Amino acid sequence: MKTELQPPLQKIVLLELLVPLALLIFGAYHGVLQVLYRAGVIRATSFLGIEYYQGLTLHGVINAIVLTTFFAVALGQVLVSQELESPISIAGSTLSLVLMLLGAVMAATMIFLGKATVLYTFYPPLKAHPIFYAGLAIFVVGSWIPLYTFIPVYLRWRKSHPGQKTPLAVVGMFTAFIVWQICTLPVAYEVLVMLLPWSLGWTSGINVVLSRTLFWFFGHALVYFWLLPIYVLYYTMLPRLAGGKLFSDFAGRFTFMMFIVLSTPLGLHHQFADPGISSAWKGMQMVLTLMVAIPSLLTAFTIAASLEYGARQNGGTGLFVWWKKLPYFCTDNWLFSYLFCGLAIFLFGGVTGLINASYSMNNVVHNTAWIPAHFHLTVGGPIFLGILGMSLYLITGILKRPVLSPKLAVAIPYLWMGGTFIFSTGLFLGGLRGEPRRTNLGLTYLNPASPSYRPDWWISTHIGAVGGCIMGLAILMYFIVLVRSLVGATSLALERETFSVPLSEPYHNENVPALRNFTPWITAAILLIVVAYAVPITDIVKSNYKGAPGYAPDNPVAIEKAP
Amino acid sequence: MPAQPDNGANPTEKRVLLAAVSFTAASLALIAYATLGLGATVPSCLPNGEIFKHGSVIKHGAGTYEIHFLAKMWGFEPTRVRVPAGSTLDIYITSKDVTHGLQITGTNVNLMAIPKAITSTRVHFAKPGTYAIVCHEYCGAGHQKMNAVIEVSDQVTDIYAEGLPSPGAGRAVVEDKGCTACHSADGTVGVGPSFKALYGQTVELANGASRIVDDAFIRAMIQHPNATPVKGFDPVMPELALSDEEIDQVTEYIKELK
Fold first, then answer.
1. Is the peptide bond before A20 cis (omega within 30 degrees of 0)?
2. How many structural domains does chain A have?
3. What tens digit of pLDDT does each residue of A239-278 get?
4. B19 and A363: CB-CB below 8 Å?
5. Alpha helices in B63-199 (DSSP H)
6. What does DSSP say about strands A246-248 and A506-508: parallel, antiparallel, or unpaired?
7. How confident is the model at residue A561 (pLDDT cuts 50, 70, 90)?
8. Who's near B57: CB < 8 A, 6+ residues apart?
9. Does the global pTM surpass 0.90?
10. CB atoms B136 and A436 under 8 Å
């Protein structure tokens, strides 16, 4: 049995998981409200004191930044300390937790006060309160620290385990945090050097093209930072939960190294419709984006092969019949259903991602409802379900409590999957008919009394609303299970001496020395970033794009003079 | 833990890696064909071009037009454009204030409108119909109101646009609000200074300070006429409730009177 998580780290991990889950109540609530506004069920600028775009900002910041980042930190701390059998700096972990909590509270408070209704992409020249930008910066700085608490643990382990392969889970978590360290530097520059002094009134005017480019330099690597911890679960937990082994250790290591190289130099595919960047550089980064299909397809194959191996261990036979032998509805093994449903959703998320990235095809879908349909099948699919399932697993495991209502716990991911499929069908359909994302449609386009009424968007927005409500119901059920397990029947506390995360063994354990050292891959990543971004950013900096004055979201008159 | 043995790769893995690489290469080849062969490309930009301040439509020849869209909180300029079927349009867009977006439903036109920069693309309208335009990037509280329309008709022979500022808008405001009673356009000094050659001049205030007549000064004088009286003129100008748009138009008019 592995050594248990140090008791102080247990408390830190519990806070890192529970605080964002508590915030998720607001984030999920406004997810449901949004589909109602969009379908015209709610025709108002605000509901119960929260304005539509304010709620949309909350939904994005809480669900996509706060929840995902806290989860990555918590999972990293658990897996690194467990697999490298060595304690992690409590001082470092505490500092990271305090900074992240402080930053999240600062940003969330400003959003609740209506001082930062700028959405989670915070595109200038819409201007938010300085405390919002400062909160984001403090949050990101807090999330940098874990990597530097992991490194000494790894170096100690390396010394005492010469010649041994670093455990795959550790390689995966290091990959996530290395990508995070690289990609957050430009957004830190955007927030600290450009936006914060500007919102404090110390500088005037902003280069909007530059700030968008720095944001997306970060913004797409961000999605891989969300995804990589879930890939760690797929490679190191799912095969064992399925009853077998990881089909190929090589595939996992190769995939992680490819993500180090490819995560960042491809952000321009979010800016195909932007001015200020030549189509040659947009095309170059499009090619790099499509290369991500290689590790993704390899992962799809390897995980499917691992599931098949597990099913055959469970007695599965034949070409297709083995599918019946996976623990889809097993209450003792409820975590399987979260990871499995996430994978099923991700198939569609991956395909639509390829469509979005395919250069001129992006013209058809850019900024339409198609885009949120896509990312609710990625961040809202495998990532969100992985976070929900693994958080429940870690919280109850650390507290040594059983999961009460395990049948409900197994049902949640299936209900969520059904909800996201319906929701996304509506938004895909609407997007192809020009329905915009990020818009309070109910006031105008879904309002028969408005001259802008679009009856052709009625069906799509209503399908979206049905799906969104089902997703809301699944989250409500999740909170019932979580709260029951936390507060109910304490006498049922398990007599388990230690808690550790059960990880898979490899079935094929290939030895590929090139994949056993991060340095060449990080070097390649940095070189590729320089090649992909040096010319576009130089062009933008040398241009006349500077000096756009700032605006409050509710007033078409600039709140500062043009410089 | 003992050192893990290398039990070798399964041959399927290599085939899968090959399949993944081939799939990606095929996708890239198709994109290259769509872009280079079929001319389906992403929007381009005009580096360092002069930024237009108003929307407009320009005729280049029979069936070829240019539309300059000005995106602003919360509408497009022009709001409605009618073109003959079979027209080819070069579309340019910039923003007067924050980030906006423009998509023309049913076409491949999808552009971001960014202040201080211009995005452009070309579109051919073969079939008659009504093509809706919505702003697709969050631009503040009125975002959901921001839309426009392009009508393609086989009944018309030339381009027609609504929602453009009329060229004499500033002059109309000046005449409408009675400014001409005190301010001439020909250099004659009346109760107030003449508008002719006023813009850019340095004037002395009654309190001894001096100011350059620029956009901000004109705006301040219209909004609070007697807060900072100018030397040589009695502080008798009435407060007129001019909208921001009207103040801009008057300022443009004064600039034109060189």
1. no
2. 1
3. 999 999 999 999 999 999 999 999 999 999 999 999 989 9
4. no
5. 169-176
6. parallel
7. low
8. B65, B66, B67, B68, B78, B81, B159, B161, B164
9. no
10. yes
Q: To the nearest whole angstrom, how far is the Cα of B31 from the nearest Cα of chain A?
A: 7
In a domain, A303, yes or no: yes
Q: Is A126 on the interface with B (CB under 8 A)?
A: yes
User: Which range among A66-80, A106-120, A396-410 shows the weakest confidence by mean pLDDT?
Assistant: A396-410
Q: Is the pLDDT of residue A31 over 90?
A: yes
User: What CATH number corresponds to the domain at position A424?
Assistant: 1.20.210.10
Give the pLDDT confidence score for residue A63 in this predicted structure. 95
Tokens of A389: 């399932």
Whether residue A197 contacts residue A205, with contact meaning beta carbons closer than 8 Å, is answered with: no
Q: Has A374 been annotated as catalytic?
A: yes
Tokens of A233: 């679960």
Indicate the pairing of strand B100-104 with strand B75-77: unpaired
Show Cβ contacts of residue A3 under 8 Å, excluding neighbours closer than 6 positions: A82, A85, A498, A500
What is the residue range of A170's domain?
7-542
Task: Tokens 């009394």: give the residue.
Answer: A449
Residue A43 pLDDT grade (very low, low, confident, very high; cuts 50, 70, 90) = very high
How many degrees, rounded to 5, is the angle at CA B42 between CA A370 and CA B90?
110
Dump pLDDT digits (tens) for A170-196. 999 999 999 999 999 999 999 999 999
Residues 6+ apart with CB under 8 A from A378: A223, A227, A346, A349, A350, A353
